[in-house]
């Protein structure tokens, strides 16, 4: 009797332990099935015509065969999402956080499933049956899983100022390089018009940019998203914002921005100040911080404040790509050209 009880207990224990293993095995088999059936295939019978249906893309993880014209794209970062939208492609899935953010730029974006971004739902991505997945360098750990679901391309890391390179990379992956060229041609054409309208004032108007955060006021320098666009626009910046990446890093910030201490608030001054007073993700109310800033004695001493040339602008002065860049140009035209 004792032997039977011990045997039964051992069998029960093995069964319980094996359940998770069986579940994991099922997922692996499922993913392998998706890998086998979903990847674009080149048929030898169709010759060159089938080769035209796919492309080889070089990216962070190597080379990947992707569809020439993907129809069901999943994007796992805000940067990739904006790039795709600027190219006329609406992904089937992305993070609702970034969808909500970009709706403030382009209006309602319906029909995009939420899959999160930093730790995306593998099960949901699998269920959606994408034909292409776009991720970032921080998805390297889950790349093997993602690449078993569909062709997966990871974009390299880069500062916010590298938005043009990021846009070009996304366009090459999506097979939209001609569209990307049209978008950038329009960008440069708008800036050319802006410069013509500004005339001689372009070289004499000092343009300052700062972002209000919960911890401090941050200055954006040459390597930032706005820094690159303002350089293209030909505007003059305060010395505190003409720093390169290394100089910015030496001040304790990132490569594109650093925190400005209260006693150095005068370095913020200029003929016009664009103050980013909107939280990029829309999750924090910065109004209390804005009121605290306005109450500081040094704030009221700034020439730009006294002349009422401080303009509150949105998160699009901070990130990500062509859509935000065009909104920035809208602001430049409104506050530097029309209100002169």
Keywords summarizing the entry:
disordered N terminus, 340 residues, alpha/beta, Rossmann fold, five-stranded mixed β-sheet, single chain, 12 strands, three-stranded parallel β-sheet, 2 domains
Short description:
It is built from 14 helices and twelve strands.
As a whole number of angstroms, the C-alpha radius of gyration is 25 Å
Q: Helix/strand-derived class? A: alpha/beta
Q: Please, how many helices?
A: 14
Low-pLDDT stretches: 1-49
The neighbouring-strand order within the major sheet is 10-9-8-11-12
User: Which strand-content bin applies to the residues?
Assistant: 15-25%
Q: Choose one word for the global shape.
A: globular
Number of domains: 2
Major sheet attributes = 5 strands, mixed
Helix amount: 40-55%
What is CATH's topology name of the largest domain? Rossmann fold
Q: Please name the CATH architecture of the largest domain.
A: 3-Layer(aba) Sandwich
Give the end-to-end Cα distance, rounded to a whole number of Å.
97 Å
Summarize model confidence as the mean pLDDT: 85
Q: Quick one: how many beta strands?
A: 12
User: What is the H level of CATH, i.e. the homologous superfamily of the largest domain?
Assistant: Nitrogenase molybdenum iron protein domain
Protein architecture, described:
This protein has 340 residues and is of the alpha/beta class. The protein has helices at 2-38, 48-51, 78-86, 96-106, 122-128, 143-149, 163-174, 177-198, 225-233, 245-249, 287-294, 297-300, 303-306, 322-338; strands at residues 54-59, 62-67, 73-75, 93-94, 113-114, 132-136, 152-155, 207-212, 217-220, 257-260, 272-276, 310-313. Helix 7 (163-174) runs antiparallel to helix 8. It is globular.
